[in-house]
Every structure is written in structure tokens, then in C-alpha cells.
Amino acid sequence: VDVCYAAFNRCYKHSFEGAPDCTRENAQYADYFDAWRERVPGSLYLFCYLMLIDTCSVPYPITQMLGPNFRWLSEHGCDGYVMEFKPEEWGPFGVNGHLIGRLSWDPELDVDAWLAGYYGDLYGPAAGEMTGFWRHLIEDFVEPGPCVYHYDLTYTRRATDELMAPALACLGRARALAAGGEMRHREAVERAYVSSQLLMRMGAWQTALAAASEAEGNKRRVLEERAAELGRELVEWAEAHGDTDAIAPARIRRVVGV
């Protein structure tokens, strides 16, 4: 019997073995994995959620986590993995698939060097500014933020205009630079732009929901109406951009409940 081990509620911010500040079950999942490895004479696979399925297409970079994650799996006897993803979300999450493929062959891969080449191919003349965009998203949004897993979108409330300003400034310059590149470069930058707008809109909706849940009486009803309005606007916007390979509108509609 081969076993496929599904760490369903793992944290995406931290690698598989966890970290002292990880508030989810990564460390426990790692212990369970080791226990299965001792007992399984055949192959032990991981059911992998690292294409961020069921996160409503919201961009959440994990490239800084994938290297340590796959080194741990290699060192602890993981024989492979099964991974699911939505093709229409290739824009925000495709880099994960490419990087996971490389790390599967070489767990010691220099991820920063690989990303430099990847972004150069993907974004062309806008590669430098797009590297800055993703770096700011990691340093300003992901690393100081909470542990994140699929189905929980409350972390998007951190995507304020002030916090996102450095990343969006890089993205704005990248759009201008991409105009002088090939069509594929312009399309890749535009997918990132659509993703950034989704993050901001999702954050605004989540913030409105939180404000309504904390209010009472007439104020609560007013805030609930505002949250519902933002939810409808989010769905309409997502459906208008559903052909960009950056958004899965059906999932967003189900989550919003429209």
C-alpha cells in the first residue's frame, strides 16, 4: 500500500516543519509525516495544496517558503506528491508550479537565482520592477502578517492603500516598461495587475464584513448593507476579468454568496 498524506490545514507562510511563530499545525503535521514514514514500507506521497487552491485567486507569494519546504520533504523521505490546481489561476500561482517542478529535481536549488531568470523570461523589460513588486508583497504583506491557509481570507484586510503603496508603485512602473516589450510580457504584467486589484478589493470586502460584525443596531445594518454592496461589486469585477488567467470567478461568487 502506498500512502498519500494530506496536511489539509497547513500554513502557507511557513515551511512544512513549522516555525516557533507558526500558529497552525505545520509542526504537528511534520511529526505525523515522520511517524507515517516509519510505518509505510511502500511509497509515501504528499497531497500538495501549494498551488493555493480555494484561496479565491488572491495573490499570496510563497516562493520564499518553497525551498525550505521541499528540502525538508526530501530529507524526511517523501517519495513524491499529488497536486491540484485551477488552470484559470495560472497567472497568480503558476510560478509555484514551475518552482516546485525545479525543486522536485534539485531541493538545494538557489531559488533567488532561479526567480531572476524566471521573471526575466516572464516579464521582459519589466522584470526588475516586477521583482520589486513581488519582493514588497512578501516583505510588507506576507512576512509581517498572520499564518494563512485556504478558506480563511481575513488576512486580506491588511492590504491597505498605505501598506501596498511600495508594491503598487513598482507595478505601475512595470506596466509602463512592459508597453515596450512583447505581447506576452504585457499580458503577464497585466495578470499581476489584475491580481493586485483582486487583493485590494477582497481586503476591502473583508474589512467591511469585520466592521459590520463588531457593530450593533442601526449601525450594524448600515455596515452590513455596505459589505453586501462591496461583495456584489467584487463579484461583478471578478467576472469581468475572468478571461485573464488570473481569477476563478465562480469560486469568488460562492464565497461572497451572491
Order of helices and strands: EHEHEHHHHHHH
Low-confidence stretches: none
Main beta sheet strand tally, sense and closure: 3 strands, parallel
The fraction of residues assigned to DSSP E strands is: 5-15%
Strand order, largest beta sheet: 1-2-3
State the helicity in percent bands.
55-70%
- How far apart, in Å, are the first and last alpha carbons? 44 Å
Rg, Å, rounded:
19 Å
On the 0 to 100 scale, the average pLDDT is 95
Oligomeric composition of the shown chains: single chain
General shape: globular
The helix tally amounts to 9
Work out the number of β strands.
3
- Alpha-beta content class: mainly alpha
Task: Write a structural description.
- The chain is mostly helical.
- The protein has helices spanning 26-39, 63-75, 90-105, 111-123, 127-142, 161-178, 183-214, 217-240, 249-256, and strands at residues 3-6, 44-48, 80-83.
- The protein has a 3-stranded parallel beta sheet.
- Helix 7 runs antiparallel to helix 8.
- The longest helix is centred in the C-terminal third of the chain and has 32 residues, at 183-214.
- It starts with a strand and ends with a helix.
